[in-house]
Amino acid sequence: MENISVSVRVRPLNKQEQSDGFAWKIEKNSLCQVDPKTKELERARDAKYALDHVFGPQQSTREIYEVTTQGLIRKLVNGFNSTVFAYGQTSSGKTHTMRGTPDQPGIIPMAVQEVFTIIEALQDREFLLRVSYMELYNEDINDLLAPENIKLPIHESKENGVYVAGLREDIVISPEQVLELIQQGEANRHIGATKMNEGSSRSHTVFRMVIESRAIDSAVEEPSANPDAGAILVSTLTLVDLAGSERVAKTGAEGIRMKEGTAINKSLLTLGNVINKLSDGAAVAGGHIPYRDSKLTRILQPSLGGNAKTAIICNMTPAAYHVEESHSTLRFACRAKRVVNNAVVNEVLSDAAVLKRQANEIAELRKALASAGNADVEEQISHLRAQLLRSEQDNELMRIKLEQETAEREKAQKQVEMAKKIMFEKQQEQAKEEGGRKNNRRETWCPGRSGWAPPLAEGGSRKRPLQTMDLVDEDTTSRSMMLSVLEEEEESDEPPAKVKRPSDVEMEDTSAEPGESDSPVPQLPPSVHVRKSSVASGRGNSELVEMLQSRVRELESEAEATKQELANSAQRLQEQDETLRAAGTQVQELTSIRAELSSSVEQLTADKEKLVPQLEQARWQNRQLEKRLEDMAAAKQAAEEVRPAANGL
Q1: CA 302, CA 524: separation in Å to the nearest integer?
Q2: Does pTM surpass 0.70?
Q3: Contacts of 214 by beta carbon, 8 Å cutoff, 6+ apart
Q4: What is the pLDDT of residues 561-589, one digit of tens each?
Q5: CA 174, CA 129: separation in Å to the nearest integer?
Q6: Residues 6+ apart with CB under 8 A from 168
Q7: How far apart, in whole angstroms, are the C-alpha atoms of residue 615 and residue 108?
Q8: Residue 237, SS3?
Q9: Cα–Cα distance for residue pair 131/146, rounded to 1 Å
Q10: What is the CA radius of gyration of the chain?
């Protein structure tokens, strides 16, 4: 990321401006307006313009080229796009700066000569150069090398970016050939006379040179000798001579000259708007940049905030008569100075180039390891990989054992739950059977009461009734107590007390003596008197209860043993967990080492995937170049065949 380089060149006063005087003061790399007569600062215009470079009337074009353009040409050969264009009002010296004269060449001839000088010094690379020359006249693109190609369209593609379709490109092999093509194009350029300039440019011209280069395979003996072996560098040099902004009141333009001036001012206004947006940071904030409002800004889009190193030379006249136009030019220069470009090396890699680059990187890594005294690193890595594999196998065995123990534990738990369920179901069935017998038992009753109640005592207080005992109790303890009572009654010879019916009570009431009714014998409740047939049933129930109790004790002992086994398994699992944690720590260390080793391979793979589109573009360009070379060879052969015939004539 770097800012555009902006310089200002102040031309000398011409004959028409001698009377106005020099209205500007140059102080190193800054300018300020002064009174032409007193040379004092203008209070109304005390603004001071600070730029990268300011060149006065005494400095030559050669000095300007060395400061502003020579460094860009060297970057151009190394794969960076470079752009230089002149900006300013009409008759400010833009064409003189870019084209120059035969005695004092301008930026374009010196840049072309510099390119070939650098190429000749590089013996380990081969180059292919193509040039094109076009003009923008009344917002139409015309080919200056092929005048029949007019009103050419602008296209854009992912591979080539912004380009002019149908534009002629010539392959060149010498600076003289390039300058000859430029001279041919200048003859087709639109030039007209105005009051301010007899040879005023009526169109913008754009000269482009595309440089492709790659390393010569025969010069590379070792893979590490050249890291860019096999890579194709593609860079573009763009040199623009803009037409100057003008006022009709000063130029006196009429008719077609006025139409030309309107188109020139419109395109320069769009260029100023683009510079304003870029200087305000609209591109960074995602705002709209009006590149498409003019074909000039559309062609210069890569050079304005894009992938290029750009230098702007603003030309101005120091005459007081044009001070307003000079202020406008300087404001444009200050805004352009804040524009930031992102220039990168334009490199196209083939499959062979990618493999060579990866081999170079691997060789460099091996050398770095050997120089650091870590020659046995690969052996250590292999040992760590084997250790990691063994650890993974041990972890898998531990996991299988843990799953087996968990399954056994769940199986034992299910058995205990099943046994409890069976015991509970049997108890419920027994309770239902005994409940049915209780419901079928005959009920006894006494007259005058709904149930049995003891008679009143002598003091008139009611005695506390005896508690009933229920044989059909689900509690095992109550059942055993009732069985013991029944066994005692069976062993005694006395018959059980008979329960009187209501008819028997009436008979006793009529035949009893008067004294006997005062002390009645209390009767037991009906629930105590049970027939002997129920004793056998009680004994069967006791045997079932004892059997169930023994089964419960067995299940409890099995559950206790299962609990003990589970506790032992938990202890073993805890020990295995600690072992696994230690192994996991070691595995993490080994994984980090493995990730570091594979990161470089993944990076190289990602780079290779990114370079696939560029590879396709390089292949297409190679096919085009081969076709052109074949055409040139055929033309050369035809010329050689014609030459002997001409000599014979």
Answers
A1: 119
A2: no
A3: 125, 126, 230, 231, 232, 233
A4: 777 877 787 787 778 778 777 777 777 77
A5: 9
A6: 132, 143, 145, 146, 149
A7: 32
A8: strand
A9: 13
A10: 56
